[in-house]
Structures are given as structure tokens and as C-alpha cells.
Amino acid sequence: MDWQFDQIQELREDVDLEAKLALGENGKGALPRDFWESYSAMANTQGGYIVLGVKEEKKSGKLVMVGLPNPEQVLKALWDGLNNPQKASANLLSNDDVKVREFEGRKIIQIWVPEASRSQRPVYINGNPMIGTFRRNYEGDYRCPKETVNRMMAEQVEDARDARLLEGYDFNDLDLDAIKAYRNQFQSRQPDHTWNGCEMRDFLRNIGAW
Questions:
Q1: What's the CA gap between 51 and 109, in Å, rounded?
Q2: Nearest by Cα to 54 from 74, 40, 37
Q3: N or C: which end of the chain has fewer CB within 10 A?
Q4: Three-state DSSP string of the chain
């Protein structure tokens, strides 16, 4: 998503948007320390944007464009951290996910953080999943309890099991009643889908189950 200047002023921090001033102590621009908490939180939730060079007004909640005098040094710190496993357990970003935008002479950095897959979660920081795993709730980043982290790790194993091909089974081992029930749900949600007219094996092949 590419916002216009007036659109940014109308936005508010939310579950999928976090604004950070990112000016640093010298005012020239620095990657905020709490950036990594937001990165982990969005990756472990539903993804979202982190915008650097923008601040949130406390009273109104409006976003104010401030700009970064030296976005290059912020980008350097960002990519160094993403490629350091002691800082971030996984780099989910590509070059296309990070953009320097300029509005009326002021530059900001727009970062899209995609949602991590089950096999990538938990995305954690500082080398310790038990204290470095965060999730996003409304406009805040919250440290996950150990039970949540353990569940994410268990889902990694389940994801690997689901992807394993099992030998010695054929079509007769499938639960046809369960498949019919699923097809009924699929058809009720997407009545015009072309797969509704497929034979059973073709339908299962189309959805990746056969």
C-alpha cells in the first residue's frame, strides 16, 4: 500500500499499523530499539506496516509526518538486524517490503511485515523465544506467555507432519463422509466456484489433498 500525504494524516495506529519517530538521540535518524518488538508482534499476528519518521500525537492519536534526515543509516541498521539471528530469529522481508517515501521534502520509511507461516513462528528477538516473542493486540505489542510460545513451537512440528507424504495408503482409506461434509461447507460458502462440479478425486486434487 502506498499512502498519499493527506492519507497518512488521517490514519491511526491499529493492529496492523505502527508509527515510530525514529530520529535517535542526535535527531538524524536511528532504528528505534522497540522496532524489533513490533516486528516480532506483527509477524506473529496478522502482519502489518511499521512507518518510521512519523509520530503519534498523544491527545488526538493523529499521525504527524516528521521525516528522517538520514534514512540510509536507518536502513543499514534494519537490514543488519534482520540478517543477524541474534537479533531476529527470521528475516521475513524482501527489498520490495521496504520503501523510502518522500512527501513535501520529508522522507519516511514504510515497512511491510508479512505474517509468518506456522513453520516460521515464533518469530522472536534477542536470541530467546521465551522472552523475545511478541504478539499484536490493538495498537500495542505484548510479550507472549510461555504457554503461547510453546504452542507455536508445537505447531511447527505439526506443520512438518502435515507436509509428510504417507506411504501405503490409497483412496479407500479416506473418510468419504467427512469429505462430503467439507464439500457441502465449501459449496455453501462459494456456490459459484467451478470446483463444485468436479468429481471427488478432481476436487481433492484441486484443494491439494490428493
A1: 6
A2: 74
A3: N
A4: CCCCHHHHHHCCCECCEEEECCCCCCCCCCCCCCHHHHHHHHHHCCCEEEEECEEECCCCCCEEECCCCCHHHHHHHHHHHHCCCCCECCCCCCHHHEEEEEECCEEEEEEEECCCCCCCCCCEECCCHHHHEEEEECCEEEECCHHHHHHHHHHHHHHHHHCCCCCCCCHHHCCHHHHHHHHHHHHHHCCCCHHHHCCHHHHHHHCCCC
CA distance readout (Å), 133 to 6, 22, 122, 178, 198: 34, 22, 6, 37, 44
Residue with cell 511485515: 113
C-alpha cell at 183: 464439500
Q: What is the pTM of this model?
A: 0.75
pLDDT tens string 108-159? 999 999 999 988 999 999 999 999 999 999 889 999 999 999 999 988 876 6
Q: Which three cell numbers stand for residue 84?
A: 543477524
